[in-house]
Structures are given as C-alpha cells and as structure tokens.
Amino acid sequence: MQNEAGKAIRIYKEGNAFVIKVQGALDIRSLPAFMEQTKKLQDAELLIIDFENMVRLDTAAALYLLRLKHQKNVKFKHLGNRFLQTIELVKNTPPQPLPKPSNCSLLERMGYHFYLKYRFVVALLAFLGELFVKKLTIFLNPKYFRYKEVLFEINQSAIKAIGIVALTSFLVGVVIAYQSAVQLKLYGANIFIVDMLGISILRELAPMITAIVIAGRSGSAYTAEIGAMKITEELDAMRTMGFDPYFYIVIPRIIALSISLPILIFIADIAGVFGGMLIANTQLDISFGLFLERFSSVIDVKHFIIGEIKGPFFAFLIATIAIYRGFMVKDDTQSIGKNTTKSVVESIFAVIVCDALFSVVLTNLGI
Amino acid sequence: MQQVIKVENVKTVFGNKVVHDGLNLHVNEGEIYGLLGPSGCGKTTLMREMVMLEHVYSGHIYVLGKDVTRISQIQVQQLRENWGVLFQFGALFSSLNIAQNIARPLVEYTSLSSSMIEEIVSLKLQLVGLKPKDALLYPSQISGGMKKKAGLARALAMDPKLLFLDEPTSGLDPISAREFDALILKLRDLLNLTIVMVSHDLHSIKGTMDRFAIIDNKKIVYEGPYEGIHTVHSDFVDKFFRE
Ligand SMILES: Nc1ncnc2c1ncn2[C@@H]1O[C@H](COP(=O)(O)OP(=O)(O)OP(=O)(O)O)[C@@H](O)[C@H]1O
Ligand SMILES: [Mg+2]
After folding, report:
1. Fold designation for A9-92
2. Is the CB of B43 under 6 A from ligand 1?
3. Has the ipTM of the complex gone over 0.90?
4. What is this structure's pTM?
5. A182-228, pLDDT tens digit by residue?
6. What distances in angstroms separate CA A282 from CA A178, A277, A286, A296, B186, one per listed residue?
7. B40 lines ligand 1 (CB under 6 A)
8. Structural domain boundaries of chain B?
9. Count of CB contacts below 8 A, A vs B?
10. Of the candidates A308, A324, A317, which has an alpha carbon nearest to the alpha carbon of residue A349?
11. Which residues pair with B6 in a beta bridge?
12. Could you identify the atom of ligand 1 that is nearest to the CA of residue B88?
C-alpha cells in the first residue's frame, strides 16, 4: 500500500517552490504516504500541488488538502472541476470537533462504581420481590402456571443433561476410590472404602458435581437466552402483548430446575457409587455383592435424603442468578458475554456457600 | 462503459424453496442501480449474494471483475475494502458508539493519525445528516432513522467505489429521505460511485435511479430506466407504478 502510494507522487523544485505532482488516485489508501511527503516539505516557502494526472480524489484526501491549505502557503494547480466540487463539498461542511468523553477524577469514578453496586443490589432486591409476588400469584391462581414451559425446560435441563452428569460423577467416583484405595490398603482397611465412598458421594459430591455441571450448562444458557431476548426487544414485545415474562420465562425455569436437580443428583449418586465400586473391585478385590451388602448395612438413608434436599436449594440459586443476570444484560452484545460469565461464576460460588451453610447447620443439629 | 456487477443465471434455493430462478442483470460503472420488487421476492438475498454473505445455488456473480462464486481469500479481502454496505436494519456494532462504528474501518485499514480519523468521522457524520454532538451515543440510544444514517456513514467511511444500500430511506422522515437522495446523487457525481440499492420509495426510484431491475416471481420482469416501465405488465408493476 505504502509503495503503491509512493509511486503516486512526484516531487521536484521549481524556483523556491516545491511542486508535488499527484499521479493516479489520491484517496484514503494513498493518503498516509502523501501526508508523509508533505510533512517532509514542512519548511518549504511555497508548496504547489499539481493535480494534472490525478484520477480520483476522495473526501478524506480533500479534507487533508483543505487542512494543508489552512496551515501554510499552498497552491493547487490543474484542479479539475469534479475534484474542485469534492473539495467544495468538504469545505461546506465546517469542521466540528467530536465531543470528548468526560474525564472524571478518581473520587468521581469510585463514587460512580459504588453507586452502580448500590443500584445492582437494589435491582436484585426488586427482582427477588417481584419473583416472590409472582410466585404467590401463581400459588393463589394456578391458571397462571405454565405446565408446557416447565416440561419443556425439564427436558432441556434434565433429560438432555443426564449423560454428562452421569459421566462426570462416574469419573469423580473412580478418582476418589483410586486415591483412597492406596491408603486403605496400607492399613488393611479395604472394606471401609464403602463407608467412605457412600457418605462422601451421596451427601456431598453428587449434589455438588450436579450443581456445577448444571450451572455451566443451563445457567449460562438461561442468561444468554434472556439477554438476547432483551436486546432484540422480545421481552418488551411479550410485555405489551400481556405475556408476563415472569410467568412465561422466569418461574417455569426455576421450577423446572428445582425438579430436575434432585433427579440428576439421584443419577449422579448411582454413577458415582458405580465408579467407586468398579475400582473397589479391581484394586481392593471387593466383589460387587460384598460392596452392596456393606453399602446397605452401613450407609444411612439420611445421607441420600440430605443430598437430595440440597437439590432444590441449589437449583433455586442457579436459576435465579442466571435469570437475574439475563435481565441485567444491557443493550449491547458484549454485555451478554459478560453477564453469562458472571452468572456461571456467581452461581457456582453461591452453591458452594449454600453447601457450607448446610454442613454447619446439619452438624450443629447432629444429623 | 464498464460493468461493475454482472449477474448471470443466478439461482437461489433455501431448503426446497426456490427464491431466484435464473436472474440476469448488470450494473454499469457510475450508475445508481435499483433492485425492486414485492416483499420477500429476494432483493436482500440477491444483495447478500453480491457481497458474499450468501451462496448462490448455481450461476455466477461478477463484482468489480471478479467472480464472487469462486474467488481466493486475498481477492475477497481486496473486494471487501472496496465496497461499503448498508444493511436493512443498520447492523451497527452495539458495543461501539457511533463515532467508533464509523472509525472502525479507518483504524483497521489505514495508518491515518487519530486526529485525521476524527476529522473524517465528523465529516461523514455531517454528510449523512447527523450531528457530531451525537457521536458518543451508542446504537441502542438512537432512533431508527439515526441508525440508518449512522450505518450509511459507516458504509461511506472508506470512500468505497461501490456502495450497497438496503432500503436506505425506509424509516427516515420525508425530508431526510430527500436529503439522502440528494446526497447519493452528489456522491455519485463527485466520487464516481456505483450504487446498488433496494428501495420501495417511489420518490427515490424516480429521482435517483438510472436503471433498475424488478424481481417478481423468482424472475426479473423488467430491467431498465424508469421511462421504459410502461412496456411491461405484471401484478406488481401495475399496482406499484400506476396507482
Ligand atoms: N436463511 C433463509 N432461510 C430460508 N429462507 C430464507 C432465508 N433468507 C431468506 N429466505 C427467504 O427468501 C425470500 C427472500 O427474502 P429477502 O429477505 O431477500 O426478501 P426481500 O426481497 O429483501 O424482502 P423485503 O422487501 O421485505 O426486505 C423470502 O421468502 C424468505 O423467506
Ligand atoms: Mg429486504
């Protein structure tokens, strides 16, 4: 590009004036090179620009020519009528500087960010409040309940996730069993692998793994879906038609996930224990029959129930955060990405906090 | 006169739906060429095929001498730097403000200084009838008509030789629409632009187009200047031009 443009200019001296002879096109492509040349002739008393061989002049170049003429002694030679008109056109639109984005002080910026955080919290409270009211409405008035949407979402977020949840949980079961098998063998406490796996998987690992997979899978989808609906004004269209997004989008998703998660946790339980059982068999020579016999005698059913009860809590957290993040999407596409990221990170964090609370409460209750 | 665009026997198929069935037309250099026809006849689709956003099922399209149905990556890039496209719904980058939208190609393809780019942006804004003080607004903060104008300013940013405009005056108030007509006529005269545009605006059709093609029922029913339109008869032509 530069070379091409370099060819497009010839410079020679005529008395005390420099003559720049433009060859070919003087347009936005050749302009940088042309500017370079004219800058070199900074100190020339008089600059004559000869347009005899110019075939094209665009508005960007015209703009620069005018700027040049403004700055120093420049003469245009052989400027054809059409090119003159282009310069005229540019001249007739007087230069107006673009407004500058206001630069604010550190304190102002801090205040602004604090205010944004404050607004965020208020909006979250408003969202939760509205959610509560809408849920109450549905409870009192079941005709607002959208069965079809709920079933559709259960299919999307539970049935289609069975494979990945089972596989992840299976692998975690395998890993845990492998690691503990080595230690247990040392003490000859092989059979205790059943107690260990049973309690840790049913009570902690399966609910957690399921929640994390679902936060990454369904949570991100909810945020992106709702965010895109917001940008394309689909949500506004729904509102004007009297379809309340809470009844059609928000509540069905929360309910669907609250139903899905316990189902998925159950599947994760089976897959995880099966993974452990496989390793117990190959590494510790515990047969399936022995494993299951021990399992039913030492693992209390309460561990399973606690794991299952965590499901709806995790589901509520994941779905509410994801949907709220979806509503937070601003009018540009970048904010979909930003909010989806935040949605996943925040919901996983919330799930872990919730799990910790469960541990504290249940331990104190002695369960 | 040189042919800037040549469409040969183009057939377009979506699934089992035939949209175009053997289109032939050509656009001369320095011409303002219209694509007309009823809604859904495939004007936008044809324009998207010309700018390589859609594949033709069979046939050829030559743009600036190159066959866009079989073209190398390098040539594609050269072509893309030489044309500007205004989309039917603006298609501005939503995370950039108006000034950044217009400056984007300038920053990417030229080594101009930022002050020069700013001047060019300001000039383009004023040419299309936007106020430079609106330059910091984001696409979501401006009206539909302003989006059209900003989209046009972006299409004009590089002073392309070839301009594709999809319904440039729809959504503009009548005064802006006529100013727009005057602007593209002027740009054509000054910069020897070739313009292909889709329009349903009878004023624009009469006032600006040198020639146009009418697509109806998968075929071209007429190609030529406004004066010759009475030689053909079809439902669309009769209703659109004679009432
Ligand atoms: N991606 C696609 N898949 C299937 N069909 C499509 C697709 N894109 C366009 N079509 C069909 O092609 C036809 C032409 O569409 P196109 O958008 O080109 O119409 P148009 O002439 O620009 O109409 P308008 O004046 O309303 O803008 C329409 O019938 C449309 O349904
Ligand atoms: Mg269209």
Report:
1. Transcription Regulator spoIIAA (3.30.750)
2. yes
3. no
4. 0.78
5. 888 888 888 899 999 999 999 999 999 999 999 999 999 999 999 99
6. 10, 9, 8, 21, 83
7. yes
8. 1-82+162-243, 91-159
9. 86
10. A317
11. B26, B62
12. 27
